[in-house]
Structures are given as C-alpha cells and as structure tokens.
Design brief:
- There is one protein chain.
- By secondary structure, the chain is an alpha/beta fold.
- It folds into two domains: 58-299, Type I PLP-dependent aspartate aminotransferase-like (Major domain) (Aspartate Aminotransferase, domain 2), CATH 3.40.640.10; 311-440, Aspartate Aminotransferase, domain 1 (Alpha-Beta Complex), CATH 3.90.1150.10.
- The protein has helices at residues 7-28, 47-59, 66-79, 90-101, 124-132, 154-157, 177-187, 238-248, 299-331, 365-374, 405-413, 425-440, and strands at 83-87, 115-119, 136-140, 162-168, 190-194, 202-203, 206-207, 214-218, 231-235, 337-338, 346-347, 352-357, 380-381, 399-400, 414-418.
- It has an eight-stranded mixed beta sheet with strand order 1-9-8-5-4-2-3-14, sandwiched between helices.
- The protein starts with 6 loop residues before the first helix and ends with a helix.
- The structure holds pyridoxal-5'-phosphate.
- Pyridoxal-5'-phosphate (PLP) binds at residues 89-91, 94, 123, 125-126, 168, 194, 196-197, 218, 220, 231.
- Belongs to the DegT/DnrJ/EryC1 family.
- InterPro entries: DegT/StrS_aminotransferase.
- It comes from Clostridium frigoris.
Length: 444
C-alpha cells in the first residue's frame, strides 16, 4: 500500500532541502582577486527568496494571482502611490505607460505625431514606446555630470504639439523634479518617470516614481530588487490605472484581477453591459476597449519580489556606501575623470557609478575599460550613448532642440561600474586597488 503523507509535511521537507541547498552554495562562494569576476550587477538573495519561489511553484497556480496582488499591495504601500500593476519587464511598463496616454479610453489622449520631450542618451525602451505609438520624440541634451535631462532646456523644446515629458532618472540619480513638474503643470504635459534604475532614490524627500502621471520599474536581475525578469507601473490616477490594466491584459475592458473573473465578476455586472455593436450583455471579460498586449509576469516571480522588497533598505545602504568608496577613489584622478554629480535636493540610490574620461585625459574610454576588463572588473556603457547613432534608429522621425553635445560625450567617453550589494568589501578593495594601479604603473 502506498504511504500517503500529508501534503504539508512533504512541502516542509522540500523547503527544508531548498534551505540546505542554499547554504551549501553559499559555503562554496569565494573571491580570489584577479581570478574571480567582479560583476557590475546581479541577483542578491538568500534562502527566503529560494523558498518563496519553490513554495509558489509547489502551489502550481503559475499565472498571476495571490502573490502578484500581495506584491502590488506591498510595492504601492512602500512607494506611497494608489495603484501598482506588475508587468513582465520594465520595458513593458514603459510601453504600457505611453500606450495608455494614447488610449481613447482616457480623457485627453495623445494623438499620432504629437511630440514628446525626452533624451537621446537613453536605454532603448524608455524611448521605444514613443516611436511605437507614432509619436515624435523631441530630444533635449542631458547635463554633463548628472547624466539627466537638462530641465533648463525643456521649455525651449515645447511647441503646441508637445504633450508629454518621458525620461529616466539616470542610473538612480534623481532628475530635477521640481523644475520638471512645474514646466509640466504650466504647459499641461503628461510626465512619465522611468524609475527602472532609481528605486529608493528620492528628490526633496519624496521618492522617485511618485511625481509623474506614471512611473515604471524594472525587476530584471541587474536592478535594485529582482524577480529575475519583471517590472511594475504605478500611478495615482484611477483612469490611468484602469487603462493600464486593460493594455497589459490583452486590451480587455474588464477590470477584474487575473483569476478573479467568475460568476458575475468583481463588479457584479459581468453580463449586464451594452456596448455599441456588441450583443446585449456580452461577457465583459471578452469586450476589448484598447488594442492591448499580454505583459503579465508569473506569480512565481512576484513571490520572489515580495522577499526582495523586504531587503530594499539594506540594499540601498550598501549601494550608497559602495558608490561613496568608488567616488572617493575616482576623486583622486579628477584631472582625467568627470565625476558624477547629484543635485542638492537629490538623494540617489545609485544603480552604478558613471564616469566620463575627460577629452584631455591622454587615454581613451576603450583604453580604460579594456584595462578594467583585463582585471576581471565588469564595465558597462551608459546604455545607447546617443541612441540616434545606433543602427536601428537611423530612420526614425524626431526633432532635436538645441544640440546634443553632452549626449555625444556619453557615447564617446562615459562608462559605468557596479555598486550593487553583491560587491563585497574585498571586491571593492580590489576594484580600488586596480584603478589606482592604472595610474601608479603609468599604464595610461
Ligand atoms: C532606464 C531603464 N529603463 C528601462 C529598462 C528596461 O527594463 P527591463 O530590462 O526590465 O525591460 C532598463 C533596463 O535596464 C533601464 O535601465
């Protein structure tokens, strides 16, 4: 006869084994300077994330459900916003944000060929939704050392076609939010804050991601907290939230949460609506009022996100400390490097430390990053540099306001190094020693 164990006992046994596995892996971790790679970013987790994910897999609900709702509740509470929707990536969150602002279901939607002010120094998917929605990006330059949209140049770019400002807080460095929001208010413009690299950064005591009509987050493995892949879109506006839910979920009109649609639906009127052209009482679940996508994550990802969010305060502390130590190191060589600057009201939780090689340095970005990579210290470009120079963007319609002097400077001379919590004290010391020896040994 088969001995049928209680399901909870089996589950507990599996989860205990997961904890054991985590501990074994941890014990095997070691860092040998010059032999072990220093990653610029990565997942930082412990047994709690592994247990949460496996537990969710064992539930085998799989699609978005109870963990998704729990994550959204925790995340909106943390950020202090009314609505949060999880997505399968930060790129998807950006796509939803701009698509909602073009949706006929909102009061004052943008129309094709309307203009959106943004920067050409960009991660591609901050810009792409503008192009994908048939809008015209209008590029203004960034500041040389904050790497953010130059708020002082926005007003000169505004025409009667301008409808929105879409930008990222570059590498976690808060943009000049008081100025941006003031301009947006005076000119009646939508604001989308791409906060994918700026979770837990704040400006004037207010968290980034709480200023605009929408903010977006990424929970890709490199980001401040992770679900592996994943993202979120947040807003304080009910109308925008409903449209975002629709566009995320195939464009449907029904605003039940996934898995909630049964019987009469959450609204109690699932079969009571009448839409022009559709039969009386056509199931609201199959009424489509937007041309949407399916951009939902799995519940399993959200189970991980719940645990990661608990670690955010500690992560932020380490990011700030790692940034400070690397900043102090680069400061010794200010004659050859432009150091990053944050505004007086900004409190960044840095995604990374951006460094620009001065034109007069006597060595190139390529020289310096290939040196660091030879020391197994990972380096990254500040995304696309000037995205207009990227092959895929040669034929897009756009307008430039002023010039893109500092945007081009990023393309030519800027790179970044990681500050993520996986960079331990010994890795940090190795990084600093390697940077110093570039100069001590006159490698330049
Ligand atoms: C500023 C910015 N926006 C958007 C994204 C896209 O996020 P995801 O990789 O989750 O699609 C990234 C990715 O790193 C990013 O840095």
């Amino acid at each position: 006869m088969i001995n049928i164990k209680d399901e909870n006992i089996i589950r507990d046994e599996i989860l205990e084994k997961v904890k054991e596995l985590y501990k074994i892996r941890e014990q095997k971790k070691s860092f040998i300077p010059g032999k072990t790679k220093v990653n610029y970013a990565g997942r930082v987790y412990d047994e709690n994330e592994m247990v949460a994910v496996v537990d969710s897999v064992l539930d085998f609900w799989l699609t978005l459900g109870v963990k998704g709702r729990e994550f959204c509740d925790s995340f909106s509470r943390y950020l202090g916003v009314k609505y949060c929707l999880v997505t399968n990536s930060g790129s998807s969150a950006n796509l939803i944000a701009v698509s909602v602002l073009c949706s006929k279901t909102i009061k004052n939607p943008m129309k094709p060929c309307d203009e959106v002010i943004t920067t050409a120094m960009a991660f591609p998917t901050t810009l792409n939704p503008i192009i994908q929605n048939g809008l015209i990006p209008v590029f203004v330059d960034i500041e040389e050392d904050t790497y953010n949209i130059d708020a002082g140049k926005i007003e000169a770019a505004i025409t009667d076609k301008t409808r929105a400002i879409v930008f990222a807080h570059t590498l976690g460095n808060p943009a000049e939010m008081d100025k941006i929001m003031d301009i947006a208010k005076r000119h009646n413009l939508y604001v989308v804050e791409d906060t994918c690299d700026a979770l837990d950064s704040s400006y004037d005591g207010k968290l980034c991601g709480t200023f605009g009509n929408f903010s977006t987050n990424s929970f890709y493995a490199a980001h401040h907290i992770t679900m592996g892949e994943g993202g979120a879109i947040c807003t304080n506006y009910n109308e925008l939230y409903k449209a975002a839910l629709s566009i995320r979920d195939w464009g449907r009109a029904c605003f039940c949460q996934t898995g909630e649609v049964s019987g009469k639906g959450a609204c109690g009127h699932r079969f009571d609506y009448k839409f022009d052209g559709l039969p009386e009482g056509y199931d609201h679940k199959y009424v489509y009022n937007n041309i949407g996508y399916n951009l939902k994550p799995l519940d399993i990802q959200c189970a991980m996100g719940i645990e990661q969010l608990k670690k955010l305060p500690e992560f932020t502390k380490i990011r700030k400390n790692n940034f400070k130590k690397l900043y102090e190191c680069f400061k010794k060589y200010e004659d050859v490097f432009i150091l990053p600057r944050s505004l007086p009201k900004a409190d960044p939780s840095w995604f990374a430390i951006p460094i620009t090689i001065r034109e007069t340095a006597g060595f190139s970005k390529k020289d310096f990053v290939t040196y660091l990579e030879s020391k197994l210290i990972e380096t990254r470009m500040l995304f696309a540099g000037n995205i207009l120079k990227q092959p895929g963007y040669k034929d897009i319609k756009y307008r430039i306001s002023g010039d893109l002097k500092y945007t081009d400077g990023v393309l030519e001379r800027t790179f970044f190094l990681g500050v993520y919590p996986g960079i331990t004290k010994e890795k940090l010391e190795y990084m600093i020693k390697s940077i110093d020896s570039f100069f001590e040994n006159n490698i330049k």
